[in-house]
Amino acid sequence: MARLILASGSPRRLELLREAGYAFDVHPADVDESDFPPSLSPAEIAELLANRKADTVARRFPDDLVLAADTVVALGNQMLGKPADADDARRILRSLSGTLHQVITAVVLCRASTGTRLSKTVRSSVSMREMTDQELEAYIATGLWEGKAGAYGIQDNDPFVTRIDGSLTNIVGLPMEQTRAMLSDCGYEPAR
Ligand SMILES: Cc1cn([C@H]2C[C@H](O)[C@@H](COP(=O)(O)OP(=O)(O)OP(=O)(O)O)O2)c(=O)[nH]c1=O
Known about the structure:
Blueprint: E1 4-6, H1 11-19, E2 25-26, H2 42-60, E3 65-75, E4 78-80, H3 86-96, E5 100-111, E6 116-128, H4 133-142, E7 161-165, H5 168-172, H6 176-185
Parallel strand pairs: 1-2, 1-3
Antiparallel strand pairs: 3-4, 3-5, 5-6, 6-7
The protein binds thymidine-5'-triphosphate.
Thymidine-5'-triphosphate binds next to α1, β3 and α5.
């Protein structure tokens, strides 16, 4: 059977897939995540980037099954991605303070040699309480915002999230229930 390849450098995605019991290799996709048409919605951006990650790695390993994902935060129709630096993280967190927003992950499975392509986009809702400037600065100092869409990590005992509706693993970067179903459709089951 062809290998399963995780086309991601995200430690959260690796951990979720490993915890679920799958055997896989990891080959992160090096793609430009800032290059997309400005007219796209947050979900469309996540879908475009997940497909781009999958295709980049599938070209290198055409006979294998490639899994890629992209997670964005949507505040209304505004897309908030990963912060470039601490100032950007401050700006993002200020805009999320006291809001109900969505976390959207697009998942793509593809195998180039057979033309296989499955995709799924999953949304979760997150309520965030208002944060004071002092709380914001304390959080920025932890560095936990780095590399995370929306500049927060729900898995790090995030102090600002008050409620979530929908999949938790989707917020962390890979909606496992849907990913399991997609893998199963391609004949892949956990090894244990
Ligand atoms: C909202 C949120 C996002 N995130 C993370 C998941 C993703 O790693 C990241 C979104 O960035 P992505 O661009 O989706 O992924 P990535 O750059 O980390 O990895 P790759 O492109 O190689 O697959 O934000 C959390 O870990 N916790 C959270 O609560």
